[in-house]
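Practice problem. Given the sequence and the SMILES for adenosine-5'-triphosphate, write out the predicted structure.
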Amino acid sequence: MTDTALEAAALGLRYGRRGADRWALRDCSFRLPTGRVCAVVGPNGAGKSTLLALAAGLLPPTEGTVTALATTPAAARPRVGFVAQAKPLYPQLTIADTLAMGADLNPGRWDTATATRIVAGGDLDPTARVRTLSGGQRTRVALALALGKRPELLLLDEPMADLDPLARHELMGALMSQAAGHGTTIVMSSHVVAELEGSCDHLLLLGAGQVRLAGEIDDLLAAHRRVQGPASTALDTHQIVESRTTGRQLTALLRPTGPLPGALTGAPPTLEELVLAYLRSPQAPGTTPAAPGKAAA
Ligand SMILES: Nc1ncnc2c1ncn2[C@@H]1O[C@H](COP(=O)(O)OP(=O)(O)OP(=O)(O)O)[C@@H](O)[C@H]1O
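Answer key:
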């Protein structure tokens, strides 16, 4: 039994031919312990889908390594569930055929009750063909297939994007109970940070193909402060993620490197405040396992 669900070391992927210099991901290093629910966030084109595809073994790295459940992604595949952004399924199959295929492909692992319950939650007709389903209904079937596999590691690329609010709530609940009941590690990309707050305990923030923040969310929040005070307050000994001056008032989100000036009041940010501050400030220094000197503040 491993205690590492996902680990990347100097991982990089370049699309296209050599020399084209289109690095989608470069020099990514992080470790995700098992049993976590990890949010993967970042702007469009940051490399989230690429990272998930590498972790699922669908793309070979151009450089560096990635392991899933302490082995190669290909060797881990029977124990890993992956739902890609496009939710690919066989359009000509019915929902019932699709779940039967899941059972055939996962002998000894398949959880009929869970898969059937997820499909039934959407009030879907099992005899309906996949090609007749809406985007959100296809997502539901794709999640039923992934959860029915009872994976140890579940990789989900924007799983909630096309679900209605009730379906989001219900399926997020199904994912959380899978994590709590079976110790499944879930890695989930999303642009809706508010949705991740309260569900996720680990964060991977990507920007321009690099890992900018990686770690336990509680540790990351505790290491930052959202502060306000007089505009004249000097902050330059601290790592400033973003700062703004309005008249005589300064507000900033920073990573303290020592005691804060007494003129400032502040508190740890929420997850949404932290992520938005980093997204608005692409040049702000991040914290990754590859830069341990910056981790403690
Ligand atoms: N098949 C491909 N061929 C060439 N370049 C690609 C391909 N897929 C992605 N890229 C490029 O790789 C980079 C990372 O893309 P990726 O899809 O991983 O980002 P993302 O963070 O998932 O974005 P989004 O939030 O928009 O889904 C982007 O610059 C993109 O243009």
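Check your answer against the key. The chain is about 30% helix and 30% strand.
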